[in-house]
Amino acid sequence: MTRRPLVAGNWKMNGLRASVVELEAMIAAYDSHLQARAELLICPPATLLASFPAVAAGSGLAIGAQDCHPAPCGAHTGDISAEMIADAGAGFVILGHSERRADHGETDSLVRLKAEAARRAGLVAIVCVGESEAERDAGRALEIVVGQLAGSIPDGATGADLVVAYEPIWAIGTGRTPSEADIVEMHGAMRAALRERFGAEAEGIRLLYGGSVKPENAGTILKLEDVDGALVGGASLKAASFIAIARAYL
Ligand code: 13P
Hints:
The chain is α/β, with parallel strands linked by helices. It has helices spanning 20-29, 32-37, 46-49, 52-56, 82-87, 98-103, 108-120, 133-137, 141-152, 180-198, 215-221, 239-246, and strands at residues 6-10, 39-43, 62-65, 92-95, 124-129, 162-166, 206-210, 229-232. The protein has one domain (15-249): Aldolase class I (TIM Barrel), CATH 3.20.20. Helix 10 (180-198) links the parallel strand 6 (162-166) and strand 7. 1,3-dihydroxyacetonephosphate binds next to strand 8. The site of 1,3-dihydroxyacetonephosphate has 14 residues, from strand 8.
């Protein structure tokens, strides 16, 4: 089974309407050679979800959201449903990012409900997992991440509706990354857990690495076994660095 690499940008709470120039520069650089090697995705803040899908239409670059509510509609002030995201023209939604788990107390079971909502709406869910520094220091990283996977992913997930992103919390925005051996070990453990639960379907589920991915380390990280792409924060805000990361696949 070949998995198409996915280089995804998470803009977090960054970007104004003027940031469309970065999206346009990314689209201009996403030529047929790069399109043949990797899928590109940008997840802007919700305010830009209304305009970015039209800008990216026909370019091959996908647009996604950063969160959704489990319900399709209703009295949930400030929230956005998976159906609304699909209606805006987006195809993906990031779920269970460690910043949402920390800032909004999101639990594995809530993330799972959101992933079910994403599938209901026809979106691909990018479910994020990752250990804290204290958990890694205590030798519990594998146990924590495999446990988060078990709790956050819905039954019946397939490579067509699920992507998993391993983002060690201590590597996000710090410039630090795990060793190559630690990334390979973690991605291997995640693949094994997915195989145990989903059988052959697990081979189609892409496993992204996230946490301080930069043009300088992308060439190394993206070649590692069972690393099927990256979830990029800071370096995805500018076309030059985001495209430089994706070009690791050329
Ligand atoms: P950085 O690439 O800025 O470390 O962020 C990673 C991340 O959290 C992406 O979701």
